[in-house]
């Protein structure tokens, strides 16, 4: 893409659909929704998820971009309040048009009100929480796995196990059985298996938000398997109605080939995503 001497160039999408999506965003930014995953996209992946924080420069880039677009939505599997704290999004000048859709859209935080709207917890989460330690304790060879408490969901991480991928593969069956017994589903990610209520995913959350805002274009950036539903939603939005809603699919990193292969634009990680958002803000 072109630039002025004072504006860094924007990387060009490699697909016609992505080029159309970026062109639509640049032509009418006031009707564009920028939707972003958190972990792996705005925040670097770290061994302990509780230590994850937004990549340096993220808040500044979003604050520069938000006033120029219809809205920015962070769509994450984390509880909305946790993502707000780890992102440093609360009380930032310029971020009035930011929303955080947590737990795959089941929770919502709006910058304007500063409050979280959340449903009652699914009873199956409490039942699975009680059984989960016993399930893991049956397998001494999986030492190093640990449970992340997410309020309305539970996540089992294998990143610290002696053989992280083997532990991940071995746990999928037992955790799938546990989830099914209690009316939950298992959402796989990068060396993490999340047990959560059915009915919501990032695609459902994104589609609802695009329709709510009446967006004329949408950008979605993600890095993991849970973002595939949002990718599918953008693909569907592109074909809805007489003209469709142009969209740009951005992949952060290359650790998940299923996502990278479907992206219109691949960036090497959160630092590059933040640089792209900052350049976009300067371009608009």
How would you explain this protein's 3D organization?
- This protein has 284 residues and is an alpha/beta fold.
- Helix content is 36%, strand content 19%.
- The chain contains 9 helices and 12 strands.
- The protein has helices at residues 16-27, 58-65, 80-87, 123-137, 164-181, 202-213, 228-239, 257-260, 270-283, and strands at 32-36, 71-75, 98-102, 107-110, 116-117, 146-149, 154-157, 185-189, 192-196, 217-222, 247-252, 265-267.
- The strands form 2 sheets. Strands 5-4-3-2-1-10-11-12 form an 8-stranded mixed β-sheet, with helices on both faces. A 4-stranded antiparallel β-sheet has the order 6-7-9-8, covered by helices on one side.
- The radius of gyration is 19 Å and the shape is globular.
Helix and strand content put the structural class at: alpha/beta
Strand order of the largest sheet: 5-4-3-2-1-10-11-12
Return the string of H and E elements. Answer: HEHEHEEEHEEHEEHEHEHEH
Q: How many distinct helices?
A: 9
Computed Rg? 19 Å
Indicate the percent of residues in helices.
25-40%
What percent of residues are in strands?
A: 15-25%
The overall strand count is: 12
Shape: globular
Distance between the termini: 13 Å
Main sheet: strands, sense, barrel: 8 strands, mixed
Look at the structure and give the mean pLDDT: 92
Name some characteristics of this structure:
284 residues, 8-stranded mixed β-sheet, 4-stranded antiparallel β-sheet, alpha/beta
